[in-house]
Amino acid sequence: MAFEGLTEKLSAAFKKLRGKGRLSEADVKEAMKEIRMALLEADVNFKVVKQFVAAVTERAVGADVLESLTPAQMIVKIVNEELTALMGGESTKLTISSRPPTVVMLVGLNGAGKTTNGAKLAGFLKKQQGKRPLLVACDTFRPAAITQLEVVGAQVDVPVFQMGQTDPIAIAQAGIEHAKKHGNDIVFIDTAGRLHVDEELMDQLRAMKAAVEPTEILLIVDAMIGQDAVNAAKTFDEALDLTGVMLTKLDGDARGGAALSIRAVTGKPIKFVGVGEKLDQVEVFHPDRMASRILGMGDMLSLIEKAQQNFDAKKAAELEQKLRKNKFTLADFYDQLVQLKGMGSLTDIAGMLPGMNAKALEGATVDEGALSRTEAIILSMTPAEREDPSLLNNSRKKRIAAGSGTQVVDINRLLKQFDLMQQMSRQFSGKQMKRMGRMGKFGKMPGMPF
User: Where is the SRP54-type proteins GTP-binding domain (predicted)?
Assistant: First the structure.
């Protein structure tokens, strides 16, 4: 999980501060020493660490903090604000050209995931912003890059323009003309990369930049390579004047040094992050939300957004009415589990909840095997049995077990879970349901398997 080690060490440092009634300047400096070590171990650039610790210390030893009734909380607040500032302060949106199409050049080294993440971004903008993206295959250096782009493009339902392994600049120009003729309002140009930065690569990218005059030049870089990601960002920026960065594999980077260093070293914002292997696992980068997660304070806004994206509003409204009338059925139960599965791993969800120990749920997911068994069991029932499980006597259970390839014990386990959920649903008054609806406009998941 991203920033796991840093979160633990910062939490330990703050815990020591909370154990003191009033803080002395020595207490603050001791805590800053621990924070400094935590950041260095998280592979944050040492110059960035030095500047960060100096800024926090200067604010933390002020009279307003040392004389406060809750000085430890004040220091957490200062660290939170300085972390947010370190990562850019606020989210930076993709610049949209006033004269479509918007042209986005994707650059980076091989292995960073330019091709896959170009498709992720195209799918994200299509789904979230109603854009009509086009992917242009300009990586004529790497074998099978064109085929890969066509495959991932098809998976996110975004068209791909390609002309084979000819001149990449000619392909880019033709792709932009194709977009103009076919109403595509944003073009992602998948460029060639190398295993290392070399002058030949940079010359080709400079020539393409001059030829297509892109609105955005986004560097796709692997967060897991730490300071090498920062060095790559600096080199590409010096050659091309990047407009932003997309960090991939942030979910697998337990240290987080790249995310905390790139903005400070290059001055260029992180605009997007890849948070998983699936093509829909991409997020806008919010520095304030990320700082909150790092400090173990959760990220409820992202959790709500994730839920809203995965939960069907119409079904949620229908479910609310069923819960009000205590008519929650086994079919509804299954539907909720499917929607929950779409939100990702329980570790990710736990990381967004304030005070939740995400590490305790590391690797936990909605059990797909159990979900498949649940689906098979429910689909083997008659409509009447799904609506009223009290009809399920032993002979019916044996029939369902035979039809679903399960055992009667599996059916009994499912019915027990369902019964517990029904008991929970009876506790919700109409007033509580209204309040839940106002909070998020998405259905409560009474069947959460955790």
Answer: 269-282
Q: What is the DSSP string of 33-85?
A: HHHHHHHHHTT--HHHHHHHHHHHHHHHTSHHHHTSSSHHHHHHHHHHHHHHH
Q: Residue 299 corresponds to which tokens in the numbers above?
A: 């990220």
* Residue in this structure with the two tokens 């003729």, named with its chain if needed: 181
Which residue is listed with tokens 């997660």?
A: 293
302-328 residue pLDDT tens: 555 555 555 555 655 665 566 556 667
User: What DSSP string describes 249-270?
Assistant: -GGG-SS-HHHHHHHHHH-PPE
Q: Tell me how far apart the alpha carbons of residues 230 and 127 are, in angstroms, rounded to a whole number.
A: 30
Q: What is the pTM of this model?
A: 0.67
Proportion of the chain in helix, strand, coil states, percent, rounded to 5: 60, 10, 30
- First CA to last CA across the chain, in angstroms? 19
pLDDT per residue as tens digits for the range 68-79: 657 777 788 888
Instruction: Report the distance separating Cα 175 and Cα 166, nearest Å.
Output: 13
Dihedral, CA atoms, 160, 166, 168, 171, nearest 10 degrees? Answer: -50
Annotated binding residues, written as ranges, equal 108-115, 190-194, 248-251
Least Cα distance to 173 among 121, 134, 132, 208 occurs for 208
Query: Residue 415's CB: how many other CB atoms inside 10 A?
Result: 16
243-274 pLDDT per residue, tens: 999 988 887 665 677 888 888 888 899 999 88
Cα–Cα distance for residue pair 265/298, rounded to 1 Å: 27
Binding positions for GTP: 108-115, 190-194, 248-251
- Start-end of H helices in 105-256: 114-129, 145-155, 168-182, 199-212, 227-240
